[in-house]
Specification:
Order of helices and strands: HEHEHHEHEHEHEEEHEHEHE
Strand content: 15-25%
Strand order of the largest sheet: 3-2-4-5-1-6
CATH class of the largest domain: Alpha Beta
Largest sheet: 6 strands, parallel
Helix content: 25-40%
Structural class: alpha/beta
Number of domains: 2
Radius of gyration: 20 Å
Distance between the termini: 32 Å
CATH superfamily of the largest domain: P-loop containing nucleotide triphosphate hydrolases
Number of strands: 11
Shape: elongated
Length: about 290
């Protein structure tokens, strides 16, 4: 892993602190885990681990076997190992808004205990379980870039076990991060549609084809657009090859639900969008179309 992936809030942008980490073996898992935690200990940060597929005791044993003084760290509250059921799935369901609120409280609690930064690993395998709200995981991953990592002193790595997630689902979820570690060459075709946060300004980029096969991805992106607290929000379509009426309708409805009532700024709109808005002008009421940038 590159050193820049380990930068803290004081020296790294949001995209360096919200990282998708992939692994296929227990050895790869440990190779990501140990340096991340060691860096937190060295910097006097609080480190938390949200376990799901991994038994929490195994996390502690792996760190101890690597020579870290975990017993002391646990006693003083610098290391906290808990579970997805106690964090992501509080109340036996997943609610992105509740989890975003949890991050704010967790950072405040870390500061109250004397730690300048909070460093977290979260196992994301719970997204494959039949849990109410799990279908909103992509929406959540998209939202937290701007709603959590830009305003908060937080470094978090989302652990994705390739053995537990379908390749296509893994691609879509890791695409929601601007920084990835452990990514392997893909023998399969890329997803029809990818959604990524924009670096440096609130908004998202759609790449690929927004049609019937990618309806769930479009719905997640639209939900993230509608929920964004940013007054000036951009949707970059310059890498989009296809956009159907249903996808445009989802985006238009999301723009209408935005809390500030300001139009959604659309950059690089493909010719198909202009043609559809000529046919259905009501869909463009809350869209501000600008040229490519």
């Amino acid at each position: 892993m590159h050193d820049d992936v380990c930068r803290t809030y004081g020296g790294g942008a949001a995209e360096d602190r919200h990282v998708a980490v992939e692994y296929s073996t227990d050895a790869e898992w440990a190779a990501h885990l140990v340096p991340f935690v060691r860096a937190g200990f060295d910097r006097g940060e609080q480190v938390q681990y949200f376990a799901d597929a991994t038994e929490p005791g195994r996390v502690v044993r792996t760190l101890a076997d690597a020579g870290l003084d975990v017993d002391s760290a646990v006693r003083r509250g610098q290391l906290v190992v808990t579970t997805a059921d106690e964090t992501y799935l509080s109340g036996s369901r997943f609610d992105p808004d509740a989890m975003i609120g949890l991050w704010g409280r967790a950072v405040e609690d870390a500061h109250a205990q004397g730690y300048g930064n909070l460093r977290v690993i979260g196992e994301m395998s719970w997204g494959t379980r039949q849990i109410t709200g799990a279908e909103r995981l992509l929406e959540y991953e998209l939202r937290i870039h701007h709603e959590v990592f830009e305003p908060l002193p937080l470094t978090a790595w989302c652990f994705y076990d390739r053995r537990l997630l379908a390749p296509e689902a893994l691609d879509v979820l890791t695409d929601a991060h601007l920084t990835r570690a452990g990514a392997a060459p893909r023998p399969h075709a890329r997803p029809e549609l990818a959604v990524t946060p924009l670096a440096g300004r609130p908004g998202f980029r759609l790449s690929g084809s927004a049609g019937y096969e990618s309806r769930r991805v479009t719905a997640a992106a639209s939900a993230a657009l509608a929920a964004s607290p940013a007054q000036d929000l951009t949707l970059d379509l310059s890498s989009l090859d296809h956009l159907d009426v249903a996808a445009l309708t989802d985006i238009a409805h999301a723009a209408r639900r935005r809390p500030f009532g300001t139009p959604l700024r659309v950059v690089g709109a493909p010719p198909a969008l202009h043609r559809m808005l000529d046919l259905f002008p009501e869909l463009g009421t809350d869209l501000q179309k600008v040229g490519r940038q």
